[in-house]
Amino acid sequence: MSGSAHGAPATASRPATLLVLGDSLSAEYGLARGAGWVALLEARLAQQGRKVQVFNASISGETTAGGRSRLPALLQSQKPTHVVIELGANDALRGFPLRNTEDNLRAMVKACQDGGAKVLVVGMRVPPNYGRKYTEDFAQLFATVARDTRSGLVPFLLKDVADRPDAVDWFQADRIHPLAKAHPLMLEHVWAGLKPML
């Protein structure tokens, strides 16, 4: 097998495959095809000559429970070396119990790691619709999961977008989904966490 003569791990013989498991923020909701951060990431990897296959399995409206149920088949079919998990926002927008969200994230990270993949957990924040404590605890649970599972972490995907003074000018009419001009910023946040893993 190629790569084994020098004591390299077996995974070195197969190309790196990046699985993105996300919701509408990663599924190009309301955007022209190729304008979302995942497509921009794919273009950057190609520009840098990195041989990484990107498979975007993101679905608009996806929850952590939905991602958890779809993940085993995706791990089986794609056999990823790296996984980006960008889920949880829809849980919080619907007021789901945070314990469920955290349990689902932990289960997904463990399943990926058990399959030999490195994992990047992408954090999110939501408006205080369900009270300040819920909002703060939700924002914190991503860091907790990443720390406990020794995964990579993007603290807040929409940093410099949702928290800027002119944030209204960076979102689509629904005020939930960012415009195309926000996605390069989102890519930079993901890249900061992903680059050390590649």
Overview of the structural elements:
With 198 residues, this protein is of the alpha/beta class. Helix content is 39%, strand content 13%. The protein is built from six helices and five strands. It has helices at residues 37-47, 64-78, 89-93, 98-114, 132-149, 183-194, and strands at 16-22, 52-56, 82-86, 118-122, 152-154. Strands 2-1-3-4-5 form a five-stranded parallel β-sheet, sandwiched between helices. Helix 1 crosses helix 6 (183-194), helix 2 (64-78) runs parallel beside helix 4 and helix 4 packs parallel to helix 5 (132-149). The radius of gyration is 17 Å and the shape is globular. Mean pLDDT is 93; it is low at 1-11.
pLDDT < 50 stretches: 1-11
Number of strands: 5
Run of helices and strands: EHEHEHHEHEH
How much strand?
Answer: 5-15%
Distance between the termini: 21 Å
Largest sheet: 5 strands, parallel
Question: What is the helix content?
Answer: 25-40%
Mean pLDDT: 93
User: In order across it, which strands form the biggest sheet?
Assistant: 2-1-3-4-5
Q: Radius of gyration over alpha carbons?
A: 17 Å
**Helix tally?**
6
General form: globular
Structural class: alpha/beta
